[in-house]
Specification:
This protein is an alpha/beta fold. It contains 7 helices and 5 strands; from the N terminus they run βαβααβααβαβα.
Length: 126
């Protein structure tokens, strides 16, 4: 899943993911609220949960409505099955060292990558 308010970034990242055969399905969202709604809908329709629950969620930090950190906080309030299955990857253009510290405080296993997404950065996720 890609969550970024910049549609061009979503497009480019989707193409990089496809070119590297990183995922079979790619869901894109232009804000954290729509991504949370998508995940909540999966929780309601349990029969599609296993098939559609993303293994990796790439989330930008600077977005309107709710920022990336707010999305991550809400995500970790979701059912344990979601938290165990989906890996959070912050994909941002932010160079602020404090953002990395906040991510570590939220969960030490959050991966922090700087844009643009590359083949090398994808291989570091596995």
């Amino acid at each position: 899943m890609l969550i970024d308010d910049n549609e061009m970034d979503n497009f480019i990242n989707q193409k990089i993911i496809e070119a590297n055969s990183f995922a079979d399905k790619i869901y894109t969202n232009t804000n954290g609220l729509s991504a949370l709604e998508f995940l909540n809908n999966l929780n309601v329709k349990k029969e599609t949960l296993e098939e559609m629950l993303p293994e990796v969620i790439f989330v930008d930090l600077n977005m309107p409505l709710i920022n990336g950190f707010q999305f991550i906080e809400k995500f970790y309030e979701m059912p344990e099955e979601f938290v165990k299955t989906s890996k959070i990857v912050i994909l941002t253009s932010s160079l602020n060292a404090e953002d990395r510290e906040i991510a570590k405080r939220l969960r030490p296993n959050i991966i922090f990558l700087n844009k643009p997404l590359t083949q090398e950065s994808l291989s570091s996720i596995s």
